[in-house]
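Dear colleagues,

For the upcoming journal club I promised to circulate an example of a predicted protein-ligand complex. I picked one with flavin-adenine dinucleotide because it came up in last month's discussion. The inputs are reproduced below in full, followed by the predicted structure.
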Amino acid sequence: KADASPPLLRLLDAVQAAPQPAKGDCVVYWMRMEDMRIRDNRALALASAQALKAGVPLLVLFVLSPQDFIAHDRSSRRIDFTLRNLRCIRDDLAKLNIPLHTVSHVSRKKIPGAVHDLLLQWNASHLFGNIEYEVDELRRDIALCELAQVHGKVACIFLHDKCIVPPGDVRTKDGRGYTVYSPFLRVWAPVLEKASSHHLDEAPLPQANDRSVHNHVTFGSLFKTEVPKEVEGYGLSVEDQARISTFWPAGEDAADQMLYRFLNTAARSTQFGAVDPLSKGASEADPTKKSRLAKYKDARDRMDADTTSRLSPYLAAGVISARACVREALKASGKKKLDVSRDTGVGRWIQELAWRDFYTHIVALFPRVSMGRPFQEKYADVQWETNPEHLQAWKDGRTGVPIVDAAMRQARTMGWMHNRARMIAAMYLVKDLMIDWRLGEKYFMETLIDGDLASNNGGWQWSASTGVDPAPYFRIFNPYTQSQKTDPGGEYIRHFVPELSKVRGPEVHNPPAGVADKLGYPRPLVDHKEARERAIRRYKNIGAK
Ligand code: FAD
């Protein structure tokens, strides 16, 4: 158990300046890769209020650091999505006479100094930002606050915005954080419901700057700052760029439409044509059919149908706030009060948003999980297989287990995977192939557009049975049974594994060797039953130590 106020957060709190420096020439909001929106953004709203109060312009700053991308195994898809969103934000801010200044290629260590130099150069009185909970990011913000204190010119203020309920606010009776989800949820919901908590309140939109800012000798030129077309080493092929931006259009309007689509429209029977999911969104609204939200409780695990919100890229990049998702879901389902019940579509969906909070709280409370350590230290010594061919076959979707291969190819094609697909593919790597979960965690981050350290780490440590509230080590998915349950007709497999596109009936889940050979589809890398026994043996031996 850990104290509900993690040390680095406490330190950040301690070094944040009381906002009372001399009047400067501007107020700055520092936007990060996790809060890429103008609507319902706490730090941006507060920065705007401060600028209004002081009668000075508001400026927005964004810092691109390729070293940061390397440290977090960021995927090219995520970087491309960041730049596409940044362009939308620049255009929307310009309508409010607010410039967006993007600084490229700052090395990681130099970020606090570089940001502070800019604040001095602009004679800023205040800097506002939303907190990022990873260790290096907290250290970076603490360093900036300390620098600002030494110089005494700028007040730096960081706010909680990523989670619906911030880390530290969901506590046991003795003031500690939770490491099991169900009791966490039982406290999370009442904290959220408390009228005085304001956790669901929408942050106001920023006020427009006076037009005269365009004529300011320094600030006027910031409107001309370019958003880079790409970051070296993170370019996408023309084809990938076109496909990914069709699946995942950038901008807050796109995120809102995606939410609308989930809340108000029904799922089509199959999902995975390479179509713009939004182009059919509104026309699908059919009052005679139950919406995806209404059916979520029962349909969420079906990999062959488009039943979930697909909002994870937007939530991971903060293009939409998680608060807005809860507010709109309650409204769409006609609920006046919060619903987190397992028995309703809306309740079940809000539970998933609570998982996102839960894993973010865990990263804040137990920073070691984000440094490659298992949450349950006793599993640090599990004996892993070192088999580069098996690892590569898994990445390529050529394990010979159709549902795993379809899942892995979905990741390559869409930069996204269905939650069940992630669970099945992750459990297969860790328990059937007995390959270290950290290699899978890294590959997902490098491939997916929604890579989020907390949710990804939480998901991988769940699958590896090493995390908070994990799958017990002996409860190992049988990928063939999972396949029959989540893709009963085999549509999902046939779509992503074209070698099997002509295989009908149950054989698609586990093609006989003769059929597989004829179709050029690989035979299974391992026998599931034997692999399962090996995994249990290895975990059990550790447990006995
Ligand atoms: P919906 O079912 O519509 O859920 C709504 C939102 O709730 C999601 O967008 C997401 O923000 C949140 N959510 C849902 N399930 C979870 C969960 N299990 N844990 C945390 N948040 C959840 N999610 C990421 O956003 N980024 C990741 O890098 C990531 N890696 C994962 C790795 C593994 C091994 C596993 C098992 C899960 C991972 N998840 C991750 C969680 C989950 O798979 C995705 O959030 C979900 O598939 C996204 O689809 P959706 O937006 O349609 O979700």
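Two points we might discuss: Confidence is low (pLDDT under 50) at residues 273-283. The longest strand covers residues 124-130.

See you all on Thursday,
B. R.
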